[in-house]
Amino acid sequence: MPSSASWSSWSCPFRQATLLALAGLALGLTVNLARPPPLHLRATWAALAAQHAAAEGIARCSATEFLATVDSNAGVILDARPLKDYRTGHVPGAISLPVSTFETRFPAVQILFVPGQRILVHGAGPNSGDALQLTRLLIARGLEAVEVVTEGVPAWTAAGRAVQPGGSPL
Predict the structure, then answer these.
(1) Would residue 146 count as lying in a domain?
(2) Distance of CA 52 to the CA centre of its chain
(3) What angle do CA 140, 77, 101 make, to 5 degrees?
(4) Which residues contact 47 (CB under 8 A, 6 or more apart)?
(5) Distances, alpha carbon 101 to alpha carbons 58, 67, 83, 96, 121, in Å
(6) Rounded to whole angstroms, how far apart are CA atoms 101 and 88?
(7) Reduced to 3 states, what is the DSSP secondary structure of residue 101?
(8) pLDDT tens-digit profile of 84-110?
(9) 26 and 52 inside one domain
(10) 20: domain range?
(11) In this structure, is residue 164 part of a structural domain?
(12) What pTM does this model have?
């Protein structure tokens, strides 16, 4: 970068573009800090997904509730991860319903739901974007007892539980 002494030697359009970019950055940061709530510039994907779920009123299921629900067979567990990840290892009893195949697979999976039955959707990790997106799709289809799991397979394995490899997605 040129020294401050050579700033005047920069071409006029380049100097104007640089000043305009800096002014835009300063204005953007100021607006971001002033808006309620400000965008988190360093937020993780998980934090953003959790923030969106809360803002949309989507029910969230904790890791503890998730484990208890699976143990008691008290609901349907949907795995939003891609099929290859499901086949590598999944929560026993989980049904694979990746977002990418939702339109074609939903009719086959839908017949397994009992009205009012709890449906827990999990993904690859904390506040999975795939799980959140699948939860939205299910709610848009009229299902009411749908919750997104705040943790996914990592919560399952962290509790000392084994994943089940292979298997049919249904």
Answers:
(1) yes
(2) 9
(3) 55
(4) 40, 127
(5) 22, 26, 9, 10, 15
(6) 18
(7) helix
(8) 999 999 999 999 999 999 999 999 999
(9) no
(10) 4-34
(11) no
(12) 0.70
